[in-house]
Write a structure and sequence with these properties.
The protein is mainly beta. It has one domain: Jelly Rolls (Sandwich), CATH 2.60.120.10. The chain is built from one helix and ten strands, in the order E-E-E-H-E-E-E-E-E-E-E.
């Protein structure tokens, strides 16, 4: 949440080939992808990776969505096209949430962690009561 964390503009949220209007963007910070560390901040995640008993990483990325006038939902999706584990760590408390296809919703509460099979479709929302919603998304074996 500091002002020295580098954020990168993404012109899409889920599907880079799909245009969904002016609110279809987010900022991200990739820590790990494609079998390599992408961020000098990766060591900050050492304890979390250990607690999750990660055997092999697929991807770790922070997602920052901006405040909107109403909660805007992304599309239902799976983070990977193969079976692994997904964990979402909520960085700040806000009225955004993660929703699963079965209707279950997980509120964005600071330091809450939700873990589920990567083949469970889910979506995220923006928030209306904070300047931003930040989640750390981990995919791993």
């Amino acid at each position: 949440m500091s002002d020295i964390m580098p954020w990168y503009f993404n012109d899409f949220i889920i599907d880079r080939n799909k245009t969904e209007g002016l609110t279809n963007y987010q900022f991200t910070h990739t820590f790990y992808k494609e079998f390599q560390v992408w961020s000098p901040n990766f060591p900050l995640l050492k304890n979390l990776i250990s607690e999750l008993k990660v055997k092999s990483l697929v991807r770790i990325k922070l997602n920052l969505s901006h405040r909107t006038d109403t909660n805007i939902k992304s599309s239902f999706h799976c983070d990977t096209d193969f079976d692994c584990t997904t964990s979402i760590l909520y960085i700040n408390t806000n009225n955004g949430y993660t929703e699963f296809e079965n209707g279950e919703k997980i509120d964005s509460v600071e330091n809450r962690l939700v873990t589920f099979p990567s083949n469970m479709k889910h979506l995220g929302t923006t928030c209306t009561n904070q300047k931003r919603r930040i989640v750390l998304n981990l995919n791993y074996f």
